[in-house]
Structures are given as C-alpha cells and as structure tokens.
Amino acid sequence: MIKLPSRCDRAAAEALYPDLLDVPADTAAKVDAGEVEHIGQAMLQLLAATAQSSGGVELSESSAEFGKAVALAKLEEVLSVGETA
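and the corresponding structure tokens:
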C-alpha cells in the first residue's frame, strides 16, 4: 500500500515515482489518498499515467480534497473516483 502524503506536490510525486516503478507488471498499485489535503498537477499526472498502465491504480481511500482535484482535472473515470469521502 502506498500512502500519499497530505501535500502531494511535485516533490512528493518525484519521491513516489520509484515506488510506483517497483509495483509488479499487471498488478494494481494500491494507493491510500485518505489524508490528501493538497494535490498538484504533477501528482495527478503520475497517478493518471499509472492508472493507464497494465496494472492500474486501486484507491483504498480518498479524501474530499483529493476527489475535488480529480474532478477538476476531469480524471474521475481514469482514477475511478466517485463520491468524495
């Protein structure tokens, strides 16, 4: 399980990238976005790219702020985010 920090800026995306690369092919990257208070474009792009990989992304939790940012970027279908928590 990869737990996103409360501030998901470019530095957080750069730090997360190697962890996502370590997820085996055809295996979903399990991500907990329950404590996200701010998410930037770099993190959204990284998660969207991972979601479109062979394994995809499986969100276990998502905060209201995470859901709002995903909706604003029109990535609900890509990241499988429905109602915000």
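(Above: one complete record from the training split.) The chain has a mean pLDDT of 91.
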